[in-house]
Amino acid sequence: MNNQKDFIDPSAEVKNLVLALGADIVGIADPYKLAEVSGKKNPFSVMESTKSVITFGICMPKEIMECVPESKYQIMLTNHFGKLRRIAKKIGSWLEEKGYNSYPCHDQDNIEHKKAAQLAGLGRVGSHTLLITPQYGPRVHLNSVLTDYPLNFDRFLEEELCDQCDECIAKCPPGALKKGFEVDRRKCLIYRGSELKRSYCGLCMKICWDHLGCP
């Protein structure tokens, strides 16, 4: 008979794996609650058998945040997106080896990673619609893995992390941010195309990071 001490909590095992693969934060969200707040962009539209949403993030180094939106930031951002995909793929392979189905997401999938992260207790969405975390403020990028592995869901973070200063709204170059947690994607894309040669902006992230004095 197996000793109770040998029991490994599946949720803890998954989280330890994600962190070992290079993520800085990880949580598990309820796919049904995510579907309720995501409309058409819900996990069941991607993987019908989803029972758990494993959401994780990696933080942008402080020295790179000082360079937003210069080339160093663009290079690191590209590296981050690649790293997020690689971590998701490795998690998916591990889950399938255990006999569970999985879907490693990427940035083009119809999954609301920020909403999933919020439900998983990783942080709260601010006025700029970015996730603000207790550990790193807004300087995180996210990805998720869907699976039919039944795991324990994390609790929603009750603490409000955005102080509604609205600096991000006032200082957004194209005026794409609006009160009420809204973004005019068209204005954002036009600005990126005309002023940044289609590079990513990131100024709202930096403005928030500077204002909050985040670690």
From TrEMBL:
InterPro entries: 4Fe4S_Fe-S-bd, 4Fe4S_Fe_S_CS. Residues 153-182 form the 4Fe-4S ferredoxin-type domain. Gene3D superfamilies: 3.30.70.20. PROSITE patterns: 4FE4S_FER_1, 4FE4S_FER_2. This is 4Fe-4S ferredoxin-type domain-containing protein.
